[in-house]
Amino acid sequence: MPIFIFLVVVILLSGLRIAQEYERGVVFRLGRYVGLRGPGLYWIIPLAIERSRTIDIRTRTVAAEQQQTITRDSVTINVNAVLWYRITDAEKSVIAVENVQAAVYQLALTSLRNIIGQHDLDEILQGRDKINHLLRDNIGDSTQRWGVEVERFEMKDVELPQSMQQVMAMQAEAIREKRARLIKAEAEQEASIKLEQASAQMAENPAALELRRMQMIAEVGADNNSTTIIMIPSDFVTLSKSLSEYLQDHKKKA
């Protein structure tokens, strides 16, 4: 009799299970789902009448292996991505899919290749937030049927071929050179306007022109060089111009 009681106690104790705070026990009785257990201590009918499968409901981080894909504009790139998901319905994660981790991982890789193939390289490099949003939404509907919620799915790194990197570097250099030329042209335009205004003011006051010439002489002689400067009054220049025009008119009349 004591042996029988001991065996009964052992059998009853063998049905005890413990689920952590982040775990849930999915219980099947003779192959049929009967409910969830946990967290904490719970009991199932032993002798294989009831079976329990423990499911972790914490957020999981999965690094997607590097994928070599072709963009819409026929550029081959290597993409690394990271997926964050968690199981929200332990029942569906066991009953609706055989291996929920493998299913979510393969779906993420397929979605990554499809989304990259639908966009040009410039869109992928400049619109990462948009691409990440599309990646998450694309697999969200499918994973809900498995009791899984995709929290984030983002590209981590995009590797370009060496030839494409050289082309992009040349393009960036050309853009910088174009910007520099535009800035220089704008500066010359502003300088020409200032010079036009200065020449107009000097034309109204000949003394200002003479002062400018004296300043220029001081600037040239500041370096103690051997430059020889011959001063010619502005009246001589005006007189020579008038004489040249007079001789041309006289020649035409003759």
Spatial strand arrangement across the major sheet? 3-2-5
Helix-and-strand structural type:
alpha+beta
> How many helix segments?
8
How many strands in all?
A: 8
Query: Would you identify the regions where 5 or more consecutive residues have pLDDT less than 50?
Result: none
Order of helices and strands: HEEEEEEEHHHHEHHH
Query: Helical percent range?
Result: 40-55%
Q: What is the beta-strand fraction?
A: 15-25%
> Largest sheet, if any?
3 strands, antiparallel
| Rg calc | 42 Å
N- and C-termini, Cα separation: 154 Å
Q: What value does the average pLDDT take?
A: 83
Shape: rod-shaped
Question: Your description of this structure?
Answer:
The protein is an alpha+beta fold and 254 residues long. The protein has helices at 2-13, 90-95, 100-117, 121-126, 128-144, 162-204, 206-220, 234-253; strands at residues 16-19, 23-29, 32-37, 40-43, 50-56, 60-70, 76-87, 148-159. 54% of the residues lie in helices and 25% in strands. The chain has a three-stranded antiparallel beta sheet. Strands 6-7-8 form a three-stranded antiparallel beta sheet. A two-stranded antiparallel sheet has the order 1-4. It starts with a helix and ends with a helix.
